[in-house]
Design a protein that fits this description.
single chain; alpha+beta; ten-stranded antiparallel sheet; eight-stranded antiparallel sheet; 12 helices; globular
């Protein structure tokens, strides 16, 4: 009886209306991929609840070579898997898969299509490639001319909205498209075009997006550059959601990524870290000025130990010259004493590294860091080389090191499942980076666009906003008073932007002076979330995120224009009374003239209550809820 049931289900999943047309439905039946093999090309349409959202789009691994569908096979998967760390402690993996056997003029290939309730994924496999073949992973995205797109722009504000119908006349050298692309569909759907599991696909670079003005369609194309005979492409993804914020918690990119390759993950611990780089030049009320010296680092370590902050990150001033297998340490500090002091205080250390002072050699670099008793490495100026980055992740794992990629890294979406030591990366304009501040609008854009590719190292959490704006740091923003934010917004941002390592960039004294507000950051179990929800989100306007760990909820909101966000507490348990601490604006708070005004108060709430979070322009609102 069980086998008969499986056959009946399979017939419902896969329908053949003719010899060259195939359809694959999602588990809930609302999302459908329609394949067409007419004219010796393979094309697809994507339909959501009867409405076409991508039409007549070619997909190929050997472009301009005639292709025929030979046979198909249906697979069904419905299981769950546990994360090492992440936005969820457990992820459901439920999809229908169509395995399509293809013939490209004598060259066999297989196309795998997975249909989830919230997106679809495509991957090619060739077992026998030859030297005369020129494989390239080519996909068109036949969006409506009325759809709008947004794209990351490195360390600049993400670009968009760009109307698809205007792209033929748009200078895309100026507006270069990058993954992940966010689409605002004219039918009020939200899509993201991106890739996953690039780490498992040697020979392919990062997904390249462009608008093909000849075919008048948005396209991605990546040539295969390896000499290997076997070809496995990354997964190309199209995520589909009714609400823009749900794209951030969409689990398809993780589900299609290769399973964890690290057998013992007990040493991989997400958390918070202090960071010295943005504090240099800060003078505390006792007259002490922070710099590159042991006393400064002892202060960081003491504060971390007193506040249960797992890590302290030392930036690149700890060394002055590098040659193969040798580091020349800075005379400004005694690193051995700092290491010993951190060990005594039970605080783990992370060390920065880049090759501008010379190349140590990665084969030796990670064992060297391990010999120093480091917990991780922040790797800067490594470039966007895929093979180099893949090897760095693997080699750091072999030395039991966390790795945080800085400075426009490869967006290895899904890699935190495969190699969970890849704890975060700066695929964004981090707070004050390049000594530029950024606006509340830029933050919202990066939180909704850049974060789609995975964990972000954005360095939010500045509490001494006035001091930073006044130039009281060696590495503050180039333009005085250009940091438009509030202390409350900074606290909220540390929760809103998901990361396995939350790097907070201010001085210990700045946090001590606002210890009641710092409580929100201190109590957050970073990366150890059981559940995450985006409660509200609107491009360029606001975002509100809730994360649960056990029976505690942390909620952070920010608002560009200012206003009231209603937050219904329908996710709490029935019959329980909860204590809630609010970290919020006062009547005097102003992101430009009075950014450090805030208040902290406590009350009780229950399931069904609706909190009205009142937020001034450019500020935020936080809540810590527990039984």
């Amino acid at each position: 009886m069980r086998n008969l049931f499986a056959v009946i289900i399979a017939i419902g999943l896969l329908s053949c209306s003719s010899g060259n047309k195939l359809e694959l439905a999602s588990p809930n039946g609302l999302l459908t991929i329609k394949l067409n093999n007419s004219e010796n090309k393979l094309k697809y349409n994507l339909v959501e609840n009867g409405s076409e959202i991508i039409s007549n789009s070619e997909i190929s691994i050997l472009q301009n070579v005639a292709v025929k569908v030979l046979e198909t096979k249906i697979n069904q998967v419905n299981n769950t898997w546990e994360t090492v760390w992440g936005q969820f402690s457990e992820i459901k993996n439920n999809y229908n898969e169509l395995e399509v056997s293809l013939d490209y003029e004598g060259t066999p290939a297989t196309l795998y299509i997975r249909s989830y309730n919230s997106g679809v994924a495509f991957r090619f496999k060739l077992d026998k490639s030859t030297k005369d073949l020129k494989p390239s992973y080519y996909i068109q995205y036949g969006l409506s001319s009325n759809d709008h797109i947004f794209s990351p722009a490195g360390e600049g504000q993400p670009i968009g909205p760009l109307l698809i119908g205007d792209l033929a006349s748009t200078d895309l050298k100026k507006h270069k498209l990058k993954m992940p692309l966010l689409v605002e569909n004219h039918q009020n759907k939200y899509l993201s075009l991106l890739e996953s599991d690039l780490v498992s696909a040697p020979g392919f670079g990062v997904m390249k997006l462009y608008f093909d003005k000849e075919s008048n369609v948005l396209t991605s194309n990546n040539k295969f550059t390896s000499t290997e005979n076997n070809i496995l492409t990354p997964w190309r993804l199209i995520l589909v959601e009714n609400h823009i914020g749900d794209l951030l918690t969409n689990t398809v990119p993780l589900n299609v990524a290769a399973a964890n390759k690290i057998e013992d993950t007990s040493w991989i611990k997400p958390g918070k870290t202090l960071w010295d780089w943005r504090v240099h030049g800060y003078t505390a009320k006792d007259g002490f000025t922070y710099g590159i010296d042991n006393e400064s680092y002892y202060r960081f370590i003491d504060f971390a130990a007193e506040n249960d902050i797992e890590y302290f990150l030392i930036d690149d001033a700890w060394y002055t010259h590098v040659e193969p297998g040798k580091m020349t340490l800075s005379e400004k500090l005694d690193l051995d004493k700092v290491i010993a002091y951190a060990k005594e205080k039970d605080v783990e250390l992370l060390l920065y590294y880049d090759r501008r002072q010379g190349d140590y050699g990665d084969d030796a670099l990670f064992p060297y860091y391990k010999s120093l008793n480091m917990k991780g490495i922040k790797y800067g100026f490594m470039g966007t080389k895929v093979d180099f980055t893949r090897d760095a992740i693997r080699k750091s794992a072999e030395s039991n090191l966390l790795i945080d990629f800085h400075d426009a890294p490869v967006p290895f979406t899904g890699v935190s499942r495969t190699y969970p030591n890849a704890i975060t990366r700066e695929f964004c304009h981090a707070q004050q980076d390049s000594r530029r501040a950024f606006t509340p609008k830029t933050f919202i854009r990066m939180a909704l666009i850049n974060a789609l590719q995975g964990p972000l190292d954005m360095n939010n959490g500045i509490f001494d906003v006035t001091g930073v704006n006044a130039g009281k740091r060696e590495k503050g923003p180039r333009k005085l008073n250009s940091l438009e934010t509030t202390s409350v917004a900074e606290a909220a941002r540390t929760l809103i932007v998901f990361s396995g390592l939350v790097c907070i960039p201010d001085a210990p004294e700045a946090y001590t002076e606002k210890s009641d507000l710092f409580e929100f950051i201190k109590e957050m179990p970073v990366g150890k979330w059981d559940e995450s929800k985006v409660l509200h989100a609107k491009m360029d306007t606001y975002i509100s995120t809730a994360r649960r760990s056990g029976d505690q909820w942390f909620i952070g909101s920010v608002h560009v224009e200012g206003g009231t966000l209603e937050i219904p507490l329908d996710f709490l348990e029935e019959g329980k009374t909860y204590t809630v601490t609010y970290y919020e604006d006062t009547k005097e708070t102003n992101s430009k003239t009075n950014p450090e005004a805030y208040q902290v108060r406590t009350s009780t709430v229950k399931k069904g209550d609706v909190i009205k979070a009142n937020i001034v322009a450019g500020s935020g609102h936080c809540m810590w809820i527990r039984p």
